[in-house]
Amino acid sequence: MTHDQEESKLETIAITSFDGCTLVANQFGWADNGAIILSPGGGQTRHAWSAAASAFAREGYFVLCADLRGHGDSDRAPDRTYSYTDYARDALVLSDWVEGRIGVKPHFIGASLGGVAALVAAGKIRQEAFASLTLVDVAPKISEHGFGSIRNFMLESARRGFENVSEAAAFLSTHFPRPNTETRSPSGSGGLQKNLRQGEDGRWRWHWDPAFVETLYLEPEEFERELTEAATNLIIPVHFMRGGESELVTQEAARHFCNIAPHIHYTEIKGARHMVTGDQNDIFLEAALDYLTRPNLDRARAEK
């Protein structure tokens, strides 16, 4: 059996995190060229990365995609309280698991909350946590309006729920008119069902724990303070990608990030909003692979 044939047979695994929380993940490919962890944003599942994971695996990488705690098939937090530090510690557990399994330190690619987790991990807990860090539309300074809009969108749908999957698809298309890789399917709304759960009241709600929004998305000022501190401590190679039309990470926010962490490599993905991989997945993949294959990237370190 060839590597390509083996890569197509993904394996679902469970990894126990620092507090006993089980993180469910898919693993792809072989580590001919290294390893990559793909971490989704808040409100997404590991399936949001499926197309990218297969593409990276074809390029010779071992790839791990895990549901965040409180999302998808992963456990909810034991006390239903969520913090950026807990997500960061989960990221470190995944990195240690990959290194133990494959024998190499993984590159980490995180979108939105997945990127926040890795930024806090590498900036505040363990500076050489990953071989490199790619942040997809996440920065220390974010739009307060965008922050609030996302929180309100998530809470509204979490509390109210939907009568059926078609209603959920219509609600999503109203807020995010450009479909992303997680929700696109030949039958329209059919691809959404794996991301919804039907409650005892018969209504359908998203796969994630509403408590993660209620306890995590509270204070933009605290978010900026914590992530700015983390960014100033980064020593590993960092690739910062921003959606050119992002409603959350503005051009001002990009300049701020580049100023406090001048060694980072910055890429703007034109035509993409916050859901970069959904809007411009091919361009994202090209830019990500170009960065990962740069000579001596694994030995590069920022000058403090």
Question: Can I get a quick summary?
Answer:
With 304 residues, this protein is of the alpha/beta class. It is 39% helix and 17% strand.
Descriptive report:
- Residues 35-276 form the AB hydrolase-1 domain.
- Pfam families: Abhydrolase_1 (PF00561).
- Keywords: Hydrolase.
- Helix 2 (50-58) links the parallel strand 3 (34-39) and strand 4.
- The strands form 2 sheets. The chain has an 8-stranded mixed sheet with strand order 1-2-4-3-5-6-9-10, with helices on both faces.
- The protein has 2 domains: 3-146 and 221-297, 3-Layer(aba) Sandwich (Rossmann fold), CATH 3.40.50.1820; 155-212.
- With 304 residues, it is an alpha/beta fold.
- The chain contains 11 helices and 10 strands.
Helix content: 25-40%
**Cα-atom radius of gyration:** 18 Å
Name the shape in a single word. globular
Structural class by helix and strand composition: alpha/beta
* Structure annotation, total helices: 11
In the predicted model, the low-confidence regions spanning at least 5 consecutive residues are 177-189
Beta-strand percentage range: 15-25%
CATH superfamily of the largest domain: Alpha/Beta hydrolase fold, catalytic domain
CATH topology of the largest domain: Rossmann fold
CATH hierarchy, class of the largest domain = Alpha Beta
Terminal Cα separation, in Å? 47 Å
What is the number of independent domains?
2
Return the CATH architecture of the largest domain. Answer: 3-Layer(aba) Sandwich
Average pLDDT? 85
Give, in order, the helices and strands. Answer: HEEEHEHEHEHHEEHHEHEHH
- The number of E-state strands comes to 10
Spatial order of the strands in the main sheet?
1-2-4-3-5-6-9-10
**Largest β-sheet summary:** 8 strands, mixed
Protein name: Alpha/beta hydrolase
Keywords: Hydrolase
Organism: Hyphococcus luteus
InterPro entries: AB_hydrolase_1, AB_hydrolase_fold, Carboxylesterase_BioH
